[in-house]
Amino acid sequence: MSTPFTPAEVRHAVELLASRSLIRLVTEIDDNGAIPPRRLAGTLPDLSTHQLRSASDTARAHGLVRIASGAGLELTEAGTELADLYDAMARWARRHAVPAPVCEFSRRIRHVLDLLAPSISTERADALSPLTGDCAEAGLARPRTLLIQWLADNPQVARVSEPEPVA
What whole-number distance in Å separates Cα of residue 152 and Cα of residue 154? Predict the structure, then answer.
């Protein structure tokens, strides 16, 4: 199955989607509803002010959250679909006890994204998973399909910014 993503776009998307602070923000809102911006630090006390600002700025810039009047940060449709994708990846990782039998949710997401990345780019659509052969054999076919569909629906996440020319 060929995909329209270059290796650089896949790397960019994986780095963005595997960000611990973004994962925490998206899943917290998905689990508990909108978060008033002034309550972010209290809701996610394990993240620094910089991490919170970066995650919320990144999520807004990529259309994953919006500020709802009177409610705070809430997920957009793309954000809700990303939360579902994270859940599917985490379920697969738990079932296969990777990267460890017990680990943090965001670590599981990063691990699955790292396994899927080689098979997502156009140049490596037939890539083998480092786990047990190809993605289908590893049981990663569903998470892979969900990720490809999510990226196709949200191409802004994979776009790599061109460096500004020096004047």
Answer: 5
Q: Which two tokens stand for residue 89?
A: 């990846």
The C-alpha R_g of the chain, in whole angstroms, comes to 16
Tell me the CA end-to-end span of the chain in Å, nearest whole number.
42
**This model's pTM is above 0.90:** no
Q: Cβ distance 19 to 64 under 8 Å? A: no
Q: Quick one: the chain helix, strand, coil %, rounded to 5?
A: 60, 5, 35
Nearest in space to 78 (alpha carbons), one of 26, 36, 116 = 26
C-alpha pair distances (Å), 153 with each of 28, 39, 65, 78, 132: 22, 30, 15, 8, 29
pLDDT tens string 107-124: 999 999 999 999 998 644
Q: In this structure, what token pair is assigned to residue 18?
A: 């595997």
